[in-house]
Amino acid sequence: QVQLVKSGGGSVQAGGSLKLSCVGSGYDFSRCRMAWYRQAPGKERELVSIISTSYTTLYSDSVKGRFTISRVDVDKMLVLQMMSLKTEDTAMYYCAACWRGGDDDYKYWGQGTQVTVSS
Q1: What is the mean pLDDT of each run of 10 residues along the chain (119 residues)?
Q2: What CA–CA distance (Å, rounded) separates 23 from 49?
Q3: Rounded to an integer, what is the distance from CA 80 to the centroid of its chain?
Q4: Which residues of 25-46 are buried (b: 16+ CB within 10 A; e: fewer)?
């Protein structure tokens, strides 16, 4: 059974930091491209960051320089460190595993975790 278990998230004031983690099981974590997405109320889901199996990273312009994605394959863990948070970062955040080649086409998705940034 495939699972993506998330931890972290919560509420913070603007300028603060939060860390999201996602632990995978039931699939070969080390062979999968991983990603973080987010969806704010009334908006479409958007890509936040990607990390490949060779640890190459990509960030959306809106989070570049503030967020850091990382992975620890031995622990099957995906991490998103969020710094200098802004109110516009408020959203439900999702981890995604095992890209299948299409836009936003990941085989596995974790349940969302809420991040709320207040001014």
Answers
A1: 78 96 89 96 96 97 98 94 98 95 92 94
A2: 17
A3: 6
A4: eebebeebbbbbbbeeeeeeee
